[in-house]
Write a structure and sequence with these properties.
The complex is a heterodimer. Chain A is an alpha/beta fold. Chain A folds into 2 domains: 135 residues, no CATH class; 127 residues, no CATH class. Helices cover 34% and strands 10% of the residues of chain A. In chain A, strands 1, 2, 3, 4, 5 and 6 form a 6-stranded mixed beta sheet that branches. By secondary structure, chain B is of the alpha/beta class. Chain B has a single domain, classed as Rossmann fold (3-Layer(aba) Sandwich), CATH 3.40.50. Chain B has 5 helices and 4 strands, in the order βαβαβαβαα. Chain B has a 4-stranded parallel beta sheet, sandwiched between helices. In chain B, helix 3 links the parallel strand 3 and strand 4. Chain B starts with 17 loop residues before the first strand and ends in a 6-residue tail after the last helix. Classes of the chains: A alpha/beta, B alpha/beta.
Chain lengths: 286, 152
């Protein structure tokens, strides 16, 4: 058992014993060796189910929007630095009261995807040692972020002509089966009734034809502009391997360049599309 | 295939179809001024009144393209003139990211125009609609979007 797993169990056990939290959300060993699964531990004697290893890829903050967790008065969450960024976004938007959540942060040397590779978010990570938490376990890890890694693929697409880009996305979106796994996995897609479900009028065509897929995928990315914290949960969940992070990272790039804002940093900050400046770019408006 | 009442009539020449989402307080009143002043402008524009540019949702634009629009114009009060104080400032940020996203998806930005036209600028409304119509006419119909429904 690793030090981190032991540390998590000790603190989670203490919180549950003392009644600081009603339950602790964390990872447990999955059915297969290389997988972990989310678990909601409600009793102190069950904390031994909690684990932490490099397969703890999922962002558990997405469970904050689900009823079993939403109905709790207090909840402890085991979280990596990147996961905590999502919580910061939820606090900013008044979706989760800060005092409801106890953050059990864990230092993280990087995780692995199902294929064993390190995700881009780990290469670009600057929060290997989380900075926003209630308790922290694991020895401190200095970050050495490759910040350019975030936009490498985006830039390749930007270099194409609009026609080439259109063809590229047409091919990618053609694969979409409209399962909405991207939305379900996303910790920041929080609407209890999504625009894609509204049918009077039906704004987004529900059939998985290219036109409906275009509308869905563009609107999903647009609704996350300035909010996405690049946890890659959508892309990991996508059964059709659509490079959704290209869209999300492009939006992040536009927001950084236009409004000088990066998501998931400061719980007090105003999200960029909820505010404005008098001297925002006006050059494209006649 | 639907046939027109005349039956053997040749299909009418293509005309640009432009949908304009314009705010109640400035651009709509400006367009009204153009009308009451008997100014002439192309009849290609279909006006949809919205309370404020802050009400504009990108889905309006996608829906217009889905239904066969060749161009979409969004217009409202100049910065500082919003009837609701800041609706247009908020809208401007949304326009910025949405426009970039369309570009990233390979949608031709010449088909998506934004403008600020005040209640006194009937002339600017006429000029904007005229320029936009001519731009779209030169580009031809926007089939790429509306026709993405075909099955491979």
């Amino acid at each position: 058992m690793s030090d981190r797993t032991a540390g998590i169990r000790a603190i989670a056990g203490k919180w549950l014993q003392e009644g600081t939290v009603e339950a602790v959300l964390g990872w447990e060993q999955g059915t297969y060796r290389d997988k972990t699964a989310p678990v909601l531990v409600r009793k102190a004697e069950e904390v031994d189910r909690l684990v932490f290893n490099e397969r703890c890829t999922n962002n558990l903050m997405t469970y904050l929007k689900r009823d079993p967790v939403r109905s709790l008065s207090t909840v402890g969450i085991v979280a990596k630095g990147c996961d905590i960024k999502a919580l910061i976004g939820l606090i900013q938007e008044s979706q989760v009261p800060r005092e409801k959540v106890k953050i059990l942060a864990v230092t993280c040397p990087g995780v692995r995807n199902a294929d064993g590779k390190r995700p881009v978010k780990c290469a670009a990570c600057d929060v290997n040692t989380p900075v926003f938490y209630d308790e922290i376990v694991g020895e401190k890890i200095a970050s050495n972020p490759d910040r350019a890694a975030r936009f490498r693929d985006v830039e390749a697409l930007e270099a194409m002509t609009p026609e080439e880009r259109h063809r590229f996305w047409r091919e990618q979106f053609d694969k979409c089966i409209r399962c909405y796994a991207c939305r379900q996995a996303c910790p920041l897609c929080i609407c209890s009734r999504c625009i894609a479900e509204k049918n009077q009028p039906q704004w987004i065509e529900t059939s998985a034809h290219p036109r409906g897929n275009f509308a869905w995928n563009l609107i999903r990315a647009y609704h996350l502009a300035g909010r996405c914290i690049e946890c890659e949960a959508c892309e990991t969940a996508c059964p059709a391997d659509i490079p959704l992070m290209l869209l999300n990272r492009y939006m992040a790039k536009v927001v950084e360049q236009s409004f000088g804002y990066e998501a998931g940093r400061d719980p007090q900050a105003q999200p960029p599309l909820r505010t404005f400046k008098l001297d925002d770019d006006n050059s494209f408006i006649l | 295939m639907t046939t027109e009442a005349g039956g053997s009539k040749a299909p009418a020449a293509w005309e640009p179809k432009i949908v304009a989402f314009i705010c109640n307080w400035c651009t709509y009143t400006g367009a009204d001024l153009a009308g009451t002043s008997r100014m002439k402008y192309p009849p290609n524009v279909r006006v949809i009144k919205i309370p404020c540019t802050g009400r504009f949702d990108p889905l309006f634009m996608l829906k217009a393209f889905e239904r066969g629009a060749d161009g979409v114009l969004v217009s409202g009060c100049h910065p500082g003139d919003c009837h609701y104080t800041a609706g247009n400032y908020n809208a401007r940020r949304k326009f910025t990211v949405w426009r970039k996203l369309l570009d990233f998806a390979g949608i031709d930005l010449d088909r998506v125009w934004f403008s600020w036209i005040s209640a006194a600028e009937g002339g600017k409304w006429v000029e904007t609609v005229r320029n936009f119509t001519e731009t779209i006419r030169a580009k031809g119909p926007f089939r790429e979007y509306g026709e993405m429904i075909d099955v491979r």
